[in-house]
């Protein structure tokens, strides 16, 4: 883990992916927590008014439809006890139904949610990190937009736009996807079945985090939620099985279940230790003391985190006019399978032999990923799937070896590359969105005849490919 020392937050290259701690030991923290937004001091900007107190809502992901319907219909109140005076709400409902009522009953008030830019006024570094994350793009990424339009399932919004069911849908924060308010309104997390249930609380403009000694400030109150240090707060959305009918279901998002089955869970290494590497800094402008604050870019989506998760070793030899190449991938830094997330994500191992004498070249590739299919056996986006065809991912702690044989030119170069894809070509074609690919590591090995003044590599050769 990163030592408690000051570092500039703009560069995260120094941060190491957490490894499981031996013996299942959990590291303590004498300040009451280690992750998330932490306390600012009681002093703040003058002239601003505290936000008014608002209501409280709690949802379970994929129950957004029911919650929205409840709010729209004003949720019929329960009958009062015999002899008891009706509540104000019941009286209002009765008045609205009475022919003598002159004015309709207004809908119940909904909680206020502030856009991320307001949070960034005091948490500027965290805001800048979040803006680069997949959470910030959760409601507007081309893949999600295309799937939402075709799936026509409002339940997707429970995780991609959680505030839509908790606040006025016209609020700017709703379109920000998994924004500041969406996570820091999580009051508690309870385990229920294979998927944790998140309870949201927007009452009194209170923001929750792992530090229980946090002070209220001029803009918002502070709430204590120890679950911000635990993997189960991520499991509320990173665990989902799609009902198929007749009591059957198809696992879709499996990261949380994979983590629970890994050595990372046994040793107490939570998701946050890899995806939110922490450092000692001020949580907010004007904070009195420094605390450990997690990086809010979440380090996913084929970026630095996946490059650190995989160890890549390649070896090549030339025999009888053939290039024999072996590439070993080891999942040594992730507490879940690689690639993870949405089914259809891929890791591609690509080998290419280039001829110095001309344009001819030989190329092969292998693909790692999970394939879901429809009733006809065609690879489809998960919302249209009925079964899993294959799962070629690398489990936590596992390894895979790929071998290639290419025609060897007299002189040329051998290029070995490992890349991450946001979705398979079949899925991007079905959705009409561009494919996204990012290199995780690449190396080029010249070989063959020696040119004047320039040495050439000799095979066999073994190399470690680094980002």
From TrEMBL:
Pfam families cross-referenced by the UniProt entry: Cytochrome_C554
Q: Which Gene3D superfamilies does the annotation name?
A: Flavocytochrome C3, Chain A (1.10.1130.10)
Q: Where is the composition biased (Basic and acidic residues)?
A: 1-14, 42-57
Pinpoint the Cytochrome c-552/4 domain residues: 119-184
InterPro entries the record matches: Cyt_c-552/4 (IPR023155), Multihaem_cyt_sf (IPR036280)
Question: What residue spans carry the region label Disordered?
Answer: 1-57, 80-115
Output compositional bias ranges, type Low complexity.
84-103
Name of the protein described by the UniProt record:
Cytochrome c-552/4 domain-containing protein
Q: Which organism is it from?
A: Polyangium spumosum
């Amino acid at each position: 883990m990163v030592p408690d020392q000051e570092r500039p937050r703009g560069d995260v290259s120094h941060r190491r992916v957490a490894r499981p701690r031996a013996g299942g030991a959990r590291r303590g923290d004498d300040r009451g927590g280690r992750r998330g937004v932490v306390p600012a001091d009681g002093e703040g900007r003058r002239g601003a008014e505290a936000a008014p107190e608002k209501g409280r809502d709690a949802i379970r992901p994929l129950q957004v439809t029911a919650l929205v319907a409840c709010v729209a219909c004003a949720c019929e109140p329960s009958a009062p006890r015999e002899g008891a005076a009706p509540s104000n709400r019941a009286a209002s409902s009765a008045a609205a139904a009475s022919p003598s009522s002159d004015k309709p009953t207004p809908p119940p008030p909904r909680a206020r949610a502030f856009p991320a830019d307001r949070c960034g006024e005091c948490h500027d570094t965290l805001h800048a990190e979040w803006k680069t994350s997949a959470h910030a793009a959760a409601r507007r990424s081309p893949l999600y937009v295309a799937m939402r339009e075709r799936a026509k399932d409002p339940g997707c919004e429970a995780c991609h736009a959680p505030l839509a069911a908790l606040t006025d849908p016209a609020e700017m924060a709703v379109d920000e996807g998994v924004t500041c308010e969406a996570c820091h309104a999580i009051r508690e997390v309870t385990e229920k079945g294979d998927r944790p249930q998140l309870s949201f609380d927007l009452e009194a403009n209170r923001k929750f985090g792992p530090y229980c000694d946090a002070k209220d400030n001029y803009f918002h109150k502070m709430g204590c939620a120890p679950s911000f240090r635990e993997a189960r707060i991520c499991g509320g959305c990173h665990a989902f099985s799609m009902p198929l009918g007749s009591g059957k279901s198809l696992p879709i998002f499996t990261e949380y279940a994979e983590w629970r089955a890994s050595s990372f869970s046994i040793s107490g290494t939570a998701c946050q230790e890899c995806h939110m590497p922490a450092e000692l800094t001020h949580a907010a402008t004007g904070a009195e003391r420094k605390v450990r604050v997690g990086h809010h870019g979440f380090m996913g989506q084929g970026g630095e985190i996946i490059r650190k998760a995989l160890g890549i070793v390649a070896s090549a030899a030339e025999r009888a006019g053939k290039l024999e190449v072996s590439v070993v991938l080891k999942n040594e830094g992730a507490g879940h399978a690689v690639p993870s997330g949405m089914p259809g994500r891929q890791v591609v191992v690509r080998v290419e032999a280039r001829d110095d004498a001309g344009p001819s070249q030989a190329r092969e590739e292998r693909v790692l990923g999970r394939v879901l299919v429809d009733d006809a056996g065609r690879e489809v986006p998960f919302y249209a799937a009925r079964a899993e065809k294959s799962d070629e991912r690398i489990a936590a702690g596992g390894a895979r070896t790929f071998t290639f044989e290419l025609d060897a030119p007299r002189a040329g170069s051998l290029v070995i590359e490992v890349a991450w894809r946001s979705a398979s070509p079949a899925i991007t074609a079905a959705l009409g969105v561009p494919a996204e690919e990012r290199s995780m590591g690449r190396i080029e090995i010249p070989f063959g005849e020696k040119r004047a003044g320039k040495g050439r590599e000799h095979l066999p050769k073994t190399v470690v490919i680094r980002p």
